[in-house]
Amino acid sequence: MIKKYKVRIDHQEYEVEIEEVAEIEASQEAKPQPSRSLRPSQPLKPASPAKRPKDPEASGSEVISAPMPGTVLSLQVKMGDQVEAGKVLLVLEAMKMENEIVAPQAGKVVEIHTSQGLAVNTGDLLISLA
């Protein structure tokens, strides 16, 4: 029986067909084979630490963080914009749903910590208001 599935890898969607096959009989069982060890030709360099944004809370800013993991679909504000409480700041896609992230209070957009298309995790800084 052939089943069709859609698979998404790195924002690219692929359609695949998978065929169900009968169980392998005992006489046809695959025998484990030793595998070659794959080692890099040059030693790997440790990654440099990620650059952390300035601590917005220390400067008295209101911090808007990602409430869930997702992808930033669109930014609705830019640096320097004055916003009212409840204004949509950005749209975050999570589990195929578009979620509007709104300003919790009136203020001025002093820093944008994300960009359109960027994947974010729960708690990641999105926008700072003053």
TrEMBL record:
Bias type Low complexity, positions: 24-45
Region (Disordered): 24-65
Gene3D superfamilies assigned: 2.40.50.100
Domain of life the protein comes from: Bacteria
Matching PROSITE patterns: BIOTINYL_LIPOYL (PS50968)
Domain Lipoyl-binding span(s) in chain numbering: 50-130
GO molecular function: acetyl-CoA carboxylase activity
Enzyme Commission no: 6.4.1.2
Xref: InterPro entries: Biotin_Carboxyl_Carrier/Decarb, Biotin_lipoyl, Single_hybrid_motif
Keyword Ligase on entry: yes
PANTHER family noted in UniProt: OXALOACETATE DECARBOXYLASE ALPHA CHAIN
Entry protein name: Acetyl-CoA carboxylase biotin carboxyl carrier protein subunit
Organism: Eremococcus coleocola ACS-139-V-Col8
Gene label: gcdC
